[in-house]
Amino acid sequence: MSEPIPGPGAVGRVIPTPWQCPECGGPWLRNYVFRHTPNQCTILQREDATQAADAQRLASISRYTRPATAAEVLLLKHLAGPAAAADEDPQTVVSGSPALRHRVINEFDPDKHTI
Ligand SMILES: [Zn+2]
Q1: Cα–Cα distance measured from residue 82 to residue 93, given in angstroms and rounded to the nearest whole number
Q2: 28 alpha carbon to ligand 1 midpoint, in Å?
Q3: Which of 2, 3, 65, 108 is most deeply packed, by most CB within 10 A?
Q4: What is the span of the domain harbouring residue 57?
């Protein structure tokens, strides 16, 4: 396993885990995935649309970078702090497969975050 690479906002910070969805309060599961409350969370709706688009692209390529979505920036700020999303052009590195997507936004990977 590789060493954790903290995002710019995570350096020296103590972030309590598990996290909760900033909108519906659903528990954090892994990466940028939360167990959202169905039909009551707009983050879930936005993330579903992104998941579908990423799954389609991951069927032909295993890793790529794209601009972060507004929902991803919101989650990044929630998990890593506002400084982590201070860039004007935040980027998401998407990897994995259509069935199991992994995202690193502005170099912040919640799975590798250490307290
Ligand atoms: Zn939610």
Answers
A1: 19
A2: 9
A3: 108
A4: 28-112
| Distance from Cα 26 to the centre of ligand 1, integer Å | 6
Centre of ligand 1 from the C-alpha of residue 84, in Å: 20
CA distances from 71 to 5, 60, 97 (A): 22, 24, 21
Does residue 89 lie in a domain region? yes
Ligand 1: distance of its center to the CA of 30 in Å? 14
* 31-77 pLDDT per residue, tens: 999 999 999 999 999 999 999 999 999 999 999 999 999 999 999 99
Closest CA to 112 of 44, 51, 31, 46: 31
Tell me if 87 is assigned to some domain: yes
Give the C-alpha separation, 104 to 91, whole Å: 8
